[in-house]
Amino acid sequence: MNPIKHFTLITLVVTFSFSTFSQTNIEKDKLSLNSGTIDSQFEFVIKKSGNFKGTNGQAYEAVKQAWLYALKAHTLDSLKTIRKDLNDTRAIVKSQSKEITDLKSNLTNTKTDLDKTNLEKNNMALFGLQMSKTSYNVLMWTIIAGLLALLLFFIYKFKNSNVITRNANKALAEIEEEFEEHRKTALEREQKVRRQLQDEINKQKGN
């Protein structure tokens, strides 16, 4: 890559990256390529660069390639340090955020327990629901009355079912008795018809 283009690219990137981090007055620093801020090192390279004109009369600027490599190395080191500081800061922020979340959760749980304790002092719990003692007693007696009514209803249904069952068994017995009489009658008729048929067959054979 052309050293001038390389230098221009590095200048744009680093100037943008470090514009918010540099608070040092460059004019008061002693310019050096191996010390000071990145801004002062860029200023050193810029001021030490040579100007000359070509044969066509166009102006050029010459920068030592070693300076560019050194500046690049310093810039990468600074970026690496900033990234490390940023990651460390993020880790600290994440840890503190978790601590704050845990503290908020503990505070909420403590407040909930306190409210629950105060509520239980003046109320009674039934199926997880808090209610006044008067309401609790009314509800309990209502439930007892309801259960008693259901018990009486089931006793009535049970007795009624027994009556229906006895009647059904009696009717079934009568039907079975009628069926048995009908079966006997049918059997006697069948036997009579067979005898008549056999007599007729014997008569025909005799003739």
Can you offer a commentary on this structure?
The protein is mainly alpha-helical. The chain contains four helices and four strands. The strands form two sheets. It has a two-stranded antiparallel sheet. The protein has a two-stranded antiparallel sheet with strand order 3-4. The termini are far apart.
Could you give the topology of this structure?
Blueprint: H1 3-17, H2 38-48, E1 50-53, E2 59-62, H3 65-122, E3 124-126, E4 129-131, H4 133-206
Antiparallel strand pairs: 1-2, 3-4
Helix pairs in contact: 1-3, 2-3
Taken from the alpha-carbon principal axes, the silhouette is elongated
Tally of individual helices: 4
Strand tally: 4
CA-to-CA gap between the ends? Answer: 140 Å
Physical arrangement of strands within the biggest beta sheet = 1-2
> Which structural class fits the helix and strand makeup?
mainly alpha
Mind telling me the C-alpha Rg?
55 Å
- Oligomer state equals single chain
Largest sheet: 2 strands, antiparallel
Question: What is the typical, i.e. mean, pLDDT?
Answer: 77
What string, H for helix and E for strand, traces the elements in order? HHEEHEEH
**Helix share, percent:** over 70%
User: Which spans have pLDDT < 50 for at least 5 consecutive residues?
Assistant: 1-9, 16-29
Percent strand: 5-15%
